[in-house]
Amino acid sequence: MSDVVVSREGALTILRLHRAEKKNALTGAMYTALSHALREANADDGVGAIVILGQPGIFCAGNDIKDFMGFAMGGGIGQPVLDFLRALVANEKPLVAGVDGAAIGIGTTMILHCDYALASNRSVFATPFVDLGLVPEAASSLIVPQLMGNRLAFEMLAMGAKFDANRARETGLINAVTEPATLEAQTLETARAIAAKPREAVRLARKLIRGDPSAILARIDEEAKLFSERLMSQEARQSFEAFLAKGKS
Fold first, then answer.
1. Contact indicator for 152, 140 with CB cutoff of 8 Å
2. Nearest 5°: CA angle at 183, between 189 and 186?
3. Which residues pair with 12 in a beta bridge?
4. What span, in angstroms and rounded, lies between the C-alpha atoms of 227 and 200?
5. Which of 139, 140, 162, 164 could form a disulfide with 216 if both were Cys (CB 3.0 to 4.6 A apart)?
6. Residues with Cβ < 8 Å from 38, sequence gap 6 or more?
7. Is 108 within 8 Å of 127 (Cβ atoms)?
């Protein structure tokens, strides 16, 4: 079975990360599958909302480090990653996320591009980019300060602090907290309610709320340039080597 399972349920397109044995860490192939699924859903007039889900107890552990180091050897953040980030920005369908468990790195920053997000009470959100010698991505350096203010943004993006589900809700990262057993059902129920609304009115309201995406796209490119430079740094190499050594021990 694919590491990204795409299914259709009525007016919903459901994107499920299906790599639980690796904590849903994203590979280049998974990024490509997610980008393709977003484009397909946007081209389908029958789709009223898109849902992103993980596995019980794990949403997404971030990038697959070994796979990601392959991008680093090429001196860049990787085209599959950039394609996915741009597909998130280009997406015109309501995007709903259901988070159960850890949402690390891109697991957190992709939530910033969702229109509604729920999390179980055992979920935790963290962006340890600086700890790996890197910088934030997915325009998080622009969106998080707007959402939380500079001090909380520094705590999350620079200090790499972990936010539990309640703090994530208090800071606006997610909308609601629920029990693990009911998370998926509530996520789908929310998405169905959105999909049942007048489609064009929702599309226009969403567009007005989000505004001009050019600043977000420009920040994604700016971050990607710095991210690529940092990947080649001594700090990043040492951090990745230490991470991999820890995984072998």
1. no
2. 15
3. 9, 49
4. 37
5. 139
6. 15, 50, 84, 87, 88, 90, 91
7. yes
* Whole-number Å distance between alpha carbons of 45 and 150: 39
Cβ-contact 99, 119 below 8 angstroms: yes
The residue count of the chain comes to: 249
Q: Which tokens is 84 given?
A: 């996915």
Q: What is the pLDDT of residue 54?
A: 98
Nearest to 55 by CA among 98, 104, 94, 1: 98
Q: How far apart are CA 180 and CA 148, in angstroms?
A: 26
Pairing assessment for the beta strands 49-53 and 12-17 based on DSSP bridges: parallel
Residue 231 Cα to chain centre, angstroms: 20
> Per mean pLDDT, which range of 10-24, 67-81, 204-218 is the poorest?
67-81
Q: If you average pLDDT over residues 127-131, what whole number do you get?
A: 95
Distance (Å, whole) CA 48 – CA 79: 28
76-236-64 Cα angle (round to 5): 65
6-25-107-89 Cα dihedral, nearest 10 degrees: -50
Mean pLDDT of the chain: 94
